[in-house]
Write a structure and sequence with these properties.
Elements: E1 2-6, H1 11-19, E2 25-29, H2 39-49, E3 53-56, H3 70-90, E4 95-100, H4 123-138, E5 142-147, E6 150-151, H5 158-166, E7 171-175, E8 179-180, E9 183-184, H6 185-201, E10 210-213, E11 220-221, H7 222-235, E12 242-246, H8 266-272, H9 279-293
Helix pairs in contact: 1-6, 2-3, 3-4, 5-7, 7-9
Length: 297
């Protein structure tokens, strides 16, 4: 199977590239060679690399900066996503597009279903919702995956920030009234590969198409996530710090974060016959991977 993945330096794209081998060819392209806001460039990339599936992972992800950088956020997250989906459709190829919990307001007291009304409260969320809609309109063989709280051994993310800050501070003040599910990018990548195989094996079926929520099993808040990171890190002699739970109001940001980012994954489990591992196991595997890449770190 041959995948073309946009957003080469992103956490999911790098996780997909790490899975590549004889049975899975992964062509990951970054903005330096593929600007998704340029439809002609997207067409040329697909024609040059002959993928069987396109994974649309490139995105504008600077959540707070997007509040004042509106045009760039929509150019990537709406228009770029539409370009990738339409270019794939022109070649009759399925597209798997990554989206986010930020499409919801976060006001619901229980986990969100795919059928729940959206209501993004940030420019980032609005741009990603517009991207979902554009992808589903442009390609009849589209899978849109909403995920949340993504982390990995790659790039910048909450887990790596916690380890860095713990090297300098004894106690960290972490928000405890926003709830969701930390989701390990390599688990997302593995699920994407399964979805891609399903799409190719049952190309004319309709069950695998459309909108799905896909996060790890379980839930916590940001403070609980930090506590688990430090607990596992300390088990292996790594950095650790105390966690002081605080309210969102005590840590103001330019963009409003959803208070509830929990996503119900029942539909995903029913259609694809699998669930992602629990979020705690992802933390343990991520820290193991980081130790392996930097034993002295």
């Amino acid at each position: 199977m041959r995948l073309l993945v946009t957003g080469q330096n992103g956490q999911v794209a790098r996780s997909l590239a790490a899975l590549g081998g004889e049975d899975l060819q992964v062509v990951a392209l970054g903005r330096d060679v593929l600007d998704i806001t340029d439809r002609d460039a997207v067409d040329r990339a697909l024609a040059a690399h002959h993928p069987q599936i396109v994974v649309s992972a490139a995105a504008y992800t600077a959540v707070d900066k997007a509040e004042t950088d509106v045009e760039a956020a929509f150019a990537a997250n709406r228009d770029g996503a539409a370009n990738v989906a339409a270019a794939a459709a022109a070649l009759d190829l399925p597209v798997i597009h990554l989206s986010t919990d930020y499409v919801f307001s976060g006001d619901k007291p229980t986990p969100y279903l795919e059928t729940d009304p959206t209501g993004p409260r940030s420019i980032y969320g609005r741009s990603k919702l517009a991207g979902e809609q554009a992808v589903l309109a442009a390609n009849p063989k589209a899978v849109v995956l909403r995920t949340a709280w993504v982390y990995s051994p790659y790039g910048a993310n909450f887990l790596k920030s916690m380890l860095r800050l713990a090297g300098d501070r004894d106690v960290l003040r972490i928000v405890a009234d926003q709830y969701g599910t930390p989701t390990y990018a390599p688990d997302i990548a593995a699920a994407i590969v399964d979805i891609a195989r399903t799409a190719l094996d049952a190309v004319d079926a309709h069950e695998w198409r459309g909108l799905f929520h896909m996060v790890a099993t379980g839930e916590t808040n940001w403070a609980g996530f930090a506590e688990e990171i430090f607990r596992v890190s300390a088990e292996h002699g790594g950095v650790s710090a105390g966690v002081e739970p605080i309210a969102t109001a005590d840590y103001p940001t330019a963009a409003v974060r959803p208070a509830n980012s929990r996503l119900d994954t029942t539909k995903f489990a029913n259609v694809f016959g699998r669930s992602l591992p629990d979020w705690q196991s992802g933390v343990r595997r991520c820290l193991t991977a980081l130790r392996a890449s930097d034993p002295a770190g």
